[in-house]
Amino acid sequence: MIDVKDFGLARAQGIQLVSTEWFFSGKTEMHSDNDRFECQNCNHPELGKSYEIKKGNGIILWVCSKCMLDLCKNAFRHWKEAEIVSEIERAEAIYTKDRRRKERRKVTAPLMEAFPDVFSQDFMFSRNDGYSAYDIFLFKTYAKLIGVPMDVTDFDISSRTDELRNSIERIPKPLFDEIREALPDEWQTKLERHFKEGRVESTCKFKSKP
Ligand SMILES: [Zn+2]
How far is CA 78 from CA 21, 81, 144, 182, in A? Predict the structure, then answer.
């Protein structure tokens, strides 16, 4: 996992990666300690891992996880907007020969219902403390929807803050099944027990705001 210690440093923003133009190719690259990489979009330095994204005209960029996740979130916002359509459009989509759109609908509609947080406009978790379970889930779902491989074992979900721990404690079972290997071992065990026996023992003081 990329060390996110330095994420608080000021850095260039890069261009907004529009999800209808840019796609994750499925290729990733690891960079060793003495050969760290700089994000080709936002110039984030010292990357331990980078992701290849492609544009329709053949342009390729190797980007950081922050840019990669921004692209995923952008795609979900776009798909969410596309899902909020009139009944006529819904009917059209059902009968259309556009298989990709139908397949996407099959995945996004139940997801939106099951995980409203994931599809909320502002995506509550920031990058500053590492990956949240929802980040990894978004990335995995995005990769699945565009038909490229993505290995969750490449990632470590962070439990650095109370907020992140709280979000892990509240993971629904279907989401846990998708991202479990990216969770620290202790959380895998805890949550397994939780799903078998009932509530997971709370280890954090974070309270959701009224
Ligand atoms: Zn970047």
Answer: 12, 5, 16, 26
Say which amino acid occupies 104: R
Q: Domains of the chain: which residue ranges?
A: 5-197
Q: What is the mean pLDDT of each run of 10 residues along the chain (210 residues)?
A: 36 73 91 91 90 90 90 77 52 52 59 58 52 82 82 83 82 84 92 80 43
**Ligand 1 centroid from CA 37, angstroms:** 11
For residue 63, how far is its CA from the centre of ligand 1 (angstroms)?
5
Question: 34, 38, 42: which is closest to 15 by C-alpha?
Answer: 42
Q: How far is the CA of 73 from the centre of ligand 1 (A)?
A: 14
**Spacing, Cα 12 to ligand 1 middle (Å):** 9
